[in-house]
Amino acid sequence: MEVRFEQAANGEPTALLDGRYLHSRHNPGREAERSTRGTVQREPPCVVIVGSGLGYHARSILERTSRTHVIAFEPVASVREHSEGPLAALPAELSGRLALVGSTSALSDELGRSARGGFERVPLRTGDTDPSLREAEEIVASFADRLEINRNTLQKFGRLWVRNLSRNIHRLASSVGVRDLAGLFEGVPCLILAAGPTLDQVLPSLPALADRLLVIAVDTAIRPALDAG
């Protein structure tokens, strides 16, 4: 992979990766500003950029938002760490809202920390065949799917959960905490039950299994487990 840094027509640094420009040859900053204004039109809690290059798009978003956290993924270390790039002299109030990462594991960690409240995505380097970029896109897409499932679950069951918590508040206040269970069953095999297609197959064997295993049932499996003895 060949990386070459040049000066754009307006004097800003730009870069070529395997002969392809990552940013404008004329005015990289203006190009990034126009691009992000078209994709990020409000102030989301988080913006994810896959293939962030020298960081012009990240800087543009940080400069015109006050709370948005930016996750910028750039797998090419020399591009990510270019000392003359637009992120090199970011003031502390902006750099504190930026996570510049170069590995997919770091991207996953940062999504879990900063994007749970939702995020918008700025698509860059969409035609690049770098495997790490494709993997990063898959990680971001999978995280977005999980957020959507969580939102739908909360919308469907949120009122029920609040109602159940309210009815059991006196039990919560007087019961011991889960920490008091720590170490009680060390070395004991455990069977965890959840509602699913194989639960009916296990139910007839539960009384015998319970003599040898610690049995834990989630709420959807507790009633069938109790009925099985």
Topology:
Layout: E1 3-7, E2 13-17, E3 20-21, H1 28-39, E4 46-50, H2 56-63, E5 69-73, H3 77-80, H4 92-95, E6 98-101, H5 104-114, E7 120-123, H6 131-167, H7 169-174, E8 190-193, H8 199-202, H9 206-210, E9 214-217, H10 219-227
Helix pairs in contact: 1-2, 5-6
Description:
- With 229 residues, the protein is an alpha/beta fold.
- Helix content is 44%, strand content 17%.
- It has helices at residues 28-39, 56-63, 77-80, 92-95, 104-114, 131-167, 169-174, 199-202, 206-210, 219-227; strands at 3-7, 13-17, 20-21, 46-50, 69-73, 98-101, 120-123, 190-193, 214-217.
- The strands form three sheets. The chain has a four-stranded parallel β-sheet, with helices on both faces.
- Helix 1 (28-39) packs across helix 2 (56-63) and helix 5 runs parallel beside helix 6.
- The longest helix has 37 residues, at 131-167.
- It is elongated, with a radius of gyration of 25 Å.
- It starts with a strand and ends with a helix.
- The model has no long low-confidence stretch (mean pLDDT 92).
